[in-house]
């Protein structure tokens, strides 16, 4: 019974206090957790910083709780410890550095129940001055020295930068407070070396001041590359060049030495102590640029020369005459070098060749070729030759124009009498631009130039009679001496509706009950026509229909007195003008049989009345006679 009461009490406590944790011995709840930074959240380098985590826990038992503390810096775990002490948890940062800057949080875990504090940001300012050391103060060209840059007391991810005469030469990223770089120098003289570093704390970075400056003396090695070219002056295309690459040294060994002779990006020759090359000079806009390069270990020395070469003749240009040509029409292609070196070459020594696969042209004068244009575009190139030198023209693409075909004429959209009409002129084939001219009989109405593929040649006209439309024609021209004239325009003209009239059958005086009624609506204009019949006072039409005639009827098969009233009709066609008819008053008369019936009934009543009165008077007379007899 006691156990049951204990379980019941425990369950009730859990139900009414959901933030509490209960076991068989005691229960507890984490009431609050906070984090503070001492002595301040903004400190200078070297300050002893304490990150304090304060937790308030309410517990029913006397036994100490096992507490697991976790410290986070910028979302990452930096320290974890388990303790049973209820004192504040301290995370110490002795002599804080910039790398200790960041957002700190504290989390506590007691028997599975967790709570996390708000974040506090610690900012540490100030970096130590970097210290630079070199293993040598004097080196020769290409010799390697070791530079060590240190950031005393700093921690974290650090970028180190090494400078030669204020120009950055190397960058190193390390996770320690020093970095080593191997440096080499290609220029002689004194070099001032210093370093600096940057501590990376995402998303920020902090850069140090510059280190001490150390002077390095670089001595020259007495080895010099020599570049010789023969001839050196007044060089023309086609001349033979001899190029020599060697080294000049007094004492230094040439062991492990390599020589490279190049022109631009082309390697001409290579060797150990001396290399040479022979070539035909070719003209270039910037001249021929030669380099003699010596490599010996890490030492590199070069000698360069730029050699101007006079052009023997210019690259040919290929032109066409006339500038535009139609299919199958004669054309002339001319290949010509505009300039040549008259002191070395005569014009007649230049020869020209035309390349036109599949369409050879006839050769006339030097560089002149004639023939007929193809029906499709074609590419031509030509070559000029003299004294073993060949130069090619740029490709000339001949795109023969296509004569325009006879134009077609049509109405664009609709032709409505009395309104502006747009007439379209177009040809199935023909190269742009095309000039379209609209004719009316023997007079021109205007010209439109079509220059784009989707552009339309539209003309706006007005006519007073439908037959006027058949007088229009189109003319097209894109280069002929005379344009091509197309056929005359054939198109339907919509005449707007007029003179709407409503009539009835049978005649108004003959309309009677149980008969039929036809409402006939007629107009003048161009069908098809849409007719609508209305009864005055009713906005909805009685009927609507479209007819290919200019008249249409609407029939009431059987009518009654209820059909009496006023009627009218409306009509419209493709001109979209609505016309309304006159109003017709319809009075439905009584049916004939009803009239005959009423007449017969009246006659019958009269007859009965006459018969009744006759019998009555007869009976009266006989009564009087009998009375007289009785009296006698």
From TrEMBL:
Q: Report the Gene3D superfamilies cross-referenced here.
A: Immunoglobulins
Q: Which domain of life is it from?
A: Eukaryota
**Residues in Ig-like domain copies:** 18-123, 407-494, 496-585
Query: Which SMART domains does the record cross-reference, listed alphabetically?
Result: IG (SM00409), IGc2 (SM00408)
Instruction: Quote the cellular component terms of the Gene Ontology held in the record.
Output: external side of plasma membrane
Q: Which GO terms describe its molecular function?
A: transmembrane signaling receptor activity
Q: Which residues cross the membrane?
A: 596-617
Entry-linked PROSITE patterns: IG_LIKE (PS50835)
* SUPFAM superfamilies recorded: Immunoglobulin (SSF48726)
Q: Which GO terms describe its biological process?
A: cell surface receptor signaling pathway; cell-cell adhesion via plasma-membrane adhesion molecules; immune response
| Keyword Mitochondrion in annotation | no
Q: Which residues form the signal peptide?
A: 1-21
Name the record gives this protein: Ig-like domain-containing protein
Q: Which organism is it from?
A: Amphiprion ocellaris (Clown anemonefish)
Q: What is the lineage of its organism?
A: Eukaryota, Metazoa, Chordata, Craniata, Vertebrata
């Amino acid at each position: 019974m006691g156990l049951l009461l204990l379980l019941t009490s425990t369950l009730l406590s859990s139900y009414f206090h959901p933030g509490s944790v209960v076991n068989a011995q005691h229960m507890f709840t984490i009431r609050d957790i906070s984090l503070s930074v001492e002595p301040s959240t903004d400190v200078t380098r070297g300050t002893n910083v304490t990150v304090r985590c304060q937790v308030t826990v309410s517990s029913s038992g006397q036994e100490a709780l096992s507490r697991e503390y976790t410290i986070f810096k910028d979302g990452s775990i930096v320290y974890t410890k388990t303790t049973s002490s209820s004192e504040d948890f301290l995370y110490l940062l002795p002599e804080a550095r910039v790398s200790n800057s960041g957002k700190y949080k504290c989390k506590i875990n007691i028997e599975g129940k967790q709570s996390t504090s708000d974040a506090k940001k610690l900012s540490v300012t100030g970096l130590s001055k970097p210290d630079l050391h070199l293993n040598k103060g004097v080196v020769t060209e290409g010799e390697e020295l070791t530079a060590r840059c240190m950031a005393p007391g700093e921690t974290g991810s650090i970028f180190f930068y090494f400078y030669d005469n204020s120009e950055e030469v190397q960058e190193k990223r390390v996770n320690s407070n020093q970095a080593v770089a191997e440096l080499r120098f290609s220029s002689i003289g004194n070099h001032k070396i210093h370093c600096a570093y940057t501590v990376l704390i995402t998303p920020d970075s902090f850069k140090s001041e510059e280190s001490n400056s150390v002077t390095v003396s670089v001595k020259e090695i007495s080895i010099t590359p020599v570049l010789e070219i023969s001839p050196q002056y007044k060089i023309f295309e086609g001349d033979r060049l001899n190029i020599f690459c060697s080294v000049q040294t007094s004492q230094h060994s040439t062991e492990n030495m390599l020589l490279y002779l190049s022109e631009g990006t082309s390697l001409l020759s290579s060797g150990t102590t001396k290399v040479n090359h022979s070539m035909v000079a070719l003209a270039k806009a910037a001249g021929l640029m030669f380099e003699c390069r010596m490599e010996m270990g890490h030492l590199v020395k070069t000698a360069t020369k730029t050699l101007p070469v006079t052009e023997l003749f210019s690259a040919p240009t290929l032109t066409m005459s006339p500038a535009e040509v139609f299919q199958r029409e004669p054309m002339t292609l001319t290949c010509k070098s505009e300039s040549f070196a008259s002191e070395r070459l005569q014009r007649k020594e230049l020869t020209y060749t035309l390349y036109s696969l599949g369409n050879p042209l006839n050769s006339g004068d030097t560089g002149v070729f004639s023939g007929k244009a193809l029906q499709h575009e074609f590419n031509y190139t030509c070559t000029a030759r003299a004294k073993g030198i060949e130069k090619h023209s740029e490709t000339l693409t001949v795109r023969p124009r296509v004569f325009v075909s006879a134009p077609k004429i049509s109405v664009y959209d609709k032709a409505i009498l009395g309104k502006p009409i747009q007439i379209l002129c177009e040809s199935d084939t023909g190269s742009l631009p095309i000039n379209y001219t609209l004719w009316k009989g023997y007079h021109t109405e205007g010209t439109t130039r079509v220059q784009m593929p989707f552009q339309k040649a539209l003309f706006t006209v007005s006519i007073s009679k439908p037959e006027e439309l058949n007088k229009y024609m189109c003319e097209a021209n894109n280069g002929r001496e005379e344009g091509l004239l197309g056929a005359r325009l054939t198109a339907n003209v919509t005449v707007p509706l007029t003179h709407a009239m409503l009539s009835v059958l049978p005649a108004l005086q003959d309309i009677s009950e149980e008969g039929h009624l036809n409402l006939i609506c007629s107009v003048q204009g161009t069908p098809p026509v849409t007719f609508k019949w209305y009864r005055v006072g009713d906005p909805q039409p009685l009927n609507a229909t479209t007819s290919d005639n200019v008249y249409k009827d609407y029939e009431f098969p059987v009518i009654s007195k209820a059909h009496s009233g006023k009627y009218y009709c409306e009509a419209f066609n493709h001109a979209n003008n609505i016309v309304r008819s006159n109003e017709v008053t319809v009075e439905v008369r009584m049916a004939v049989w009803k009239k005959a019936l009423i007449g017969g009934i009246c006659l019958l009543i009269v007859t009965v009345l006459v018969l009744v009165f006759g019998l009555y008077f007869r009976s009266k007379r006989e009564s009087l006679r009998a009375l007289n007899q009785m009296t006698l």
